[in-house]
Amino acid sequence: MTQDEVADCLELSRAAISQMEQGRRGVSSLELYRLAHLYGRDIQDFLEEDLSEGETVMALFRRQPGVAMDAGVLDSLRQCITLGREITNLERRLGLDRGLATIPIYPVPAPDSKWDAVQQGGSVAAKERHRLNLGAAPLPDVVDLLESQRIRTAQVDLPDDISGLTLIDARHGILVAVNRRHHVLRRRFSCAHEYAHVLFDREIRGMLSRSSDRANLNEVRANAFAAAFLMPEGAVRSFVYGLAKGRPSRARMDVYDGEVALHAEGRMEPGSQDIQMHDLVRISHHFGVSRAAMLYRLKDIRMINETERTTLAAEDQAGRGRAISEILGLPELDHEAERNRFHSRFLSLGMEALRREEITRNKLRELIQLADPDRNADALLKQAGLDTIQPVDILRGEC
């Protein structure tokens, strides 16, 4: 970064940055906080005798060098790193330190084809569901599931082509962040996708999931894992069969009596086994996924063909799926309410830390602003009766 870029972040002149570099100017606690945010580091790193390489950030840059050239992505990455650090610090202050996740790493070789990636993803999804005693039931809330595995989660505003990211750090553990701007059902899929990176790619340490990288075999594998994890083939088939749908139009059986076999054949009424929009609505709602995701899953397990998928997808885009959901009493999830769940959990930690006098009111204000830069933190604190500002001592670990 140039001195001008650093100066803009710290709201100082370029000359002041030059004086800092030459050891001719002191650094205030606020400037130190801004430097830590700018470089994606913990403030304590600046106080150590030796500054180690930022493994997580550098690993992400090595894996995706184009990130460093995208200012929007860099800003989002900085926010995620800062959020992860703040969550860790708050939990430790409140005696909730979870340490590093203890979930397994699946030692599979790097996939050498898309087919290989799909097979690995599906196989590990089945193993992980078994390990978690999930059986064939629909997944519970995926965020809660990740949190139960000691994985910290966040929802942040990211560029539209980024669905999520995973950061793994020895000091702060594992953080999975998904795009707050995406629909709640897409975020659910993204959580499962990032969970796959935790299981498969933990040695990489920093992973960014972008639509432009969807052909990357690790991304293919993560998508295959997410589909199988959220929509297990056996469970989907069983549910569809329970709707009296999805079976072959003509069934044949051989009845063996010990010497010879007798052939028996049955035929279904033409079209009776075709999956309709109302079936799709019920299946998708049951498994907590989007109708588009379920259509691809049904095609993958050969319960519909590509023509049927495109026909149903077109009907859904025309609004039939939403209308049928309302008729069936299966309303769409409240996207706006769900997208702010992280804020409530994160800021409740901050308010509890304030109550215990572990942080100052000014620090809580910073946390509110970090969670959502568009919110008026001062007005919210005043409305809640928490507008008395106390001094911040960053060097004691306030940030």
The order of strands across the largest sheet is 1-3-2-4
- What class do helices, strands and sheet pairing give? alpha+beta
Q: Provide the succession of SSEs.
A: HHHHHHHEEEHEHHEEHHHHHHHH
Largest sheet: 4 strands, mixed
Low-confidence stretches: 391-399
Number of helices: 18
Number of strands: 6
How far from one another are the termini? Answer: 23 Å
Radius of gyration, whole Å: 26 Å
* Cα shape: elongated
Q: Helical content, roughly?
A: 40-55%
- Proportion in β-strands: 5-15%
Mean pLDDT score, rounded? Answer: 84
What topology emerges from the helices and strands here?
Elements: H1 3-10, H2 14-21, H3 29-39, H4 55-63, H5 71-93, H6 114-131, H7 142-148, E1 151-156, E2 162-169, E3 173-179, H8 184-200, E4 206-210, H9 217-230, H10 233-242, E5 250-256, E6 261-267, H11 277-287, H12 291-300, H13 306-317, H14 320-327, H15 335-338, H16 341-355, H17 361-371, H18 377-383
Parallel strand pairs: 1-3
Antiparallel strand pairs: 2-3, 2-4, 5-6
Helix pairs in contact: 1-2, 3-5, 5-16, 6-9, 8-9, 11-12, 11-14, 12-13, 16-17
